[in-house]
């Protein structure tokens, strides 16, 4: 196909006309489609239904150390759940605390406690004039919402194909004591699907922070969320890398079963050094009477171990993969060679990240909306919802059916083309 | 029995000798008993085992409004769970948010958010020089731990047979703008088992706080936890009383199913005015991706409604009541007339509160420990763990078997007598 960049004004005008016609055809159909939500489909959730049978009324609800999961006690998780979640993250069970549903809640708590109580003896962040977080962009909007909620200043760090721009990270972290944290999704990142290279992980572990209470917030949300059986990303274990580099306390790692079992009824965990955990447990005993141990037991009895998880994730992949590949096919067939956008075909995670011409993302999302396709808001993957180039759009292929997704993708590419033509015409 | 108060020095010495002999006999048996833990017994937990069958692999896990409980979404609880928890508290479902396991976690969050974000627009408490909470005593140690954790100054308010000393509460609340809250367990209070009279509730609702961000923390932990079918305490609904008094936003009410279903896998809820909820929901969407909706659904499908809960609580009472009555019998038979202590026979809740002679509680708890009976630490029911009179001991009869409990109670009364005799001899 001819690149839009090389078209004359006349050619662009002609293209615009035909695109407008196509767009109107879609509008006429009055569709209501959604590629905004990074949530599992019903079919994926059905995979976990057998879990509902493992703890019935005749089951023994004691954990392996004799704890009655139905009663109070065992604040940091039952032993088998700690081992299970540790296996997922590739760390030692003694470095793990198991929580309730939702790892976001652990991240929120961790930031909230740092605000009110500091980090392992440091000044509470709420007593400081300025607290800053580094935010690799594009990133996960809910991370940014947490830091925004607490009035923490967020600094954009560009992503590269190997992870965040580490030169910039090293500079900020070593020079500015107000920089207290960085949000990372190190594997199959949200939204780009990028996995951090070994060098990036090692450079993270070797950071020399100006602030003693600087922490890496390592959200390993997609740790086992591969799309392919034979082509999987693996990243280095940040906890042991930090320990090797003499920075054992510098990282909090988070993960959950939200997109493994049920997003609405899973188990989440935190991994960190023993010194960090000791400090956190002081809050733990004040904060709650204990998380849901019955659900922890249910998960372990069902999945048993990492083999069980891997089998489950390959079933999930079998449902997810065709959706990703279909969207990628439409993008490639319809936009390939036009030079109006780029995207990465990820090997895991939940998203495809589309980068349009500068200044087109909002327009594309608005056009899609008017043709019946809801996309994640333009700007959402950036702190304060502000995409400096107005070019990043997060596509979530998981939830719609294949039929709906195909239509949504086809509408999307029409919108991309139309917005791009309009943009290019502005300067002709 | 002859009152210890009327005994001569010689009589007391003789009594001491015989008590020491009895105490040594108990010590020889090398028992290990526990009356410290306010947790349900295994037999009580077994009552809820049929709940494990209601959501099996062929169940429909959609809520009545079509929400797939397995997936993300529905931040404030599924409609039937809101209605269910509202029924428990006697409020409207629209005034309810449903959380995960543990109401203590909601209380912690509520205080924590007030510290960092204030209350409905007020200055964040962490920015103030001084924040104070009123603490009716004796009270629940974990409430006091929350406020202590945040450096909030706690002020003791004596309990009366009808609830907290309201003259004192009114004075503090109306005169001191640093007083931002009060911890209440209004029904079958922890540890005394006192239920607030209608007049007390109405005086609470009619408070005229100096601080606009003053809130009553109304922990209705034992709302349906009666010991008797035909002799039950009921208290007025604080939400509607506050509304009637023109103070609709002045109260947060908390409750949970911890001691109805499973303490280690229940559902908790918050009730408050719509204005409060609107403010809280802003945090909600930042704080979590959602609480466990599957467990919410499991609870409602099992209990169905308040009739289901009431039936369950009468089964719980049938297990609890003989334990309470047995302890009360031992206390009355062994201590009646001695004038060395008093206690209330509660009609619900989880505790019997024993009040010894001044300066004896620590000694009694220590003696019991050495004879193999663990009691809640003396001082625990007071802010900072400091009982000004050193006289209050919380007895938790629920967890031990009847046999163990009988021995524990018998050892306890020997320890009370012995500590009292020693005390009385000091001044002879």
TrEMBL record, chains A, B:
<dbReference type="Pfam" id="PF12897">
    <property type="entry name" value="Asp_aminotransf"/>
</dbReference>
<dbReference type="InterPro" id="IPR015422">
    <property type="entry name" value="PyrdxlP-dep_Trfase_small"/>
</dbReference>
<protein>
    <submittedName>
        <fullName>Aminotransferase</fullName>
    </submittedName>
</protein>
<dbReference type="InterPro" id="IPR024551">
    <property type="entry name" value="AspAT_Ic"/>
</dbReference>
<dbReference type="InterPro" id="IPR015421">
    <property type="entry name" value="PyrdxlP-dep_Trfase_major"/>
</dbReference>
<dbReference type="GO" id="GO:0008483">
    <property type="term" value="F:transaminase activity"/>
</dbReference>
<dbReference type="InterPro" id="IPR015424">
    <property type="entry name" value="PyrdxlP-dep_Trfase"/>
</dbReference>
<keyword id="KW-0032">Aminotransferase</keyword>
<keyword id="KW-0808">Transferase</keyword>
